[in-house]
Structure formats: C-alpha cells, structure tokens
C-alpha cells in the first residue's frame, strides 16, 4: 500500500527544499519525523507537516501502523515563478524571480499487509 501526498506552490526555492528532502529519503517514518524536527532549515517545517499528514492519512484511512511505514520516495519539482522588478538608478530595472516548489511524498509499508 502506498500513500501519496503533495504540497503545491510552497514559497521556497526548490534547491533549498531538496536539501531537506535528501535527509529523509528512504528512512522510516518515525525516524524521518525526528530528523525533521531537529533540522534548522526553514523548509524542514513544511516537509514535516507534509510527512505528518501522510502518516495521519495512513493511520486513519488505511488502518496502517506508523512503525511499519517508510519514506519510499520524496521529490521536489519547480513550481511557477513570481516575476517582479527591482528599480535601479537611471531608470533601469532588474528582474527578480520568486521561485516556488511542488513537493511529492510517498509512504510505503516495510512489511506488506495481506
């Protein structure tokens, strides 16, 4: 059984979120929650909320034990960019791209339930 959850349009650059995603890929769900709760990166809080949501869905909807779950895959894609301009002297303007991320997290069972 796989539980797939997504977080779209997170207002953080994908490069920064991928650093946090690499920490928990392949770990058990409880171990990943511990790692994320002690990580000081700002996007770790958002990934932790997403992981907690996935674990809650597995427990409530599918009656799965959380100690039997692990993060089988987590990946971060680029979302839409907010395009802004920064005014400079002499009438110039420089572009600013405010990047967003889409996070997809998949939980699977260590020992499949029949």
Provide a descriptive summary of the structure in words.
Belongs to the universal ribosomal protein uL22 family. There is one protein chain. This protein is an alpha+beta fold and 114 residues long. It has one domain: Ribosomal protein L22/L17 (Ribosomal Protein L22, Chain A, Alpha-Beta Complex). The chain is built from three helices and five strands. A hairpin with a 5-residue loop joins strand 3 and strand 4. Helix 2 packs antiparallel against helix 3. The radius of gyration is 18 Å and the shape is elongated. The model has no long low-confidence stretch (mean pLDDT 96).
Which characteristics define this entry?
single chain, 114 residues, alpha+beta, Ribosomal Protein L22, Chain A, two-stranded antiparallel ribbon, elongated
Quick rundown:
The chain is of the alpha+beta class and 114 residues long. It contains three helices and five strands, in the order βαααββββ. The chain has helices at 14-24, 29-37, 42-62, and strands at residues 2-10, 69-78, 82-87, 93-98, 101-109.
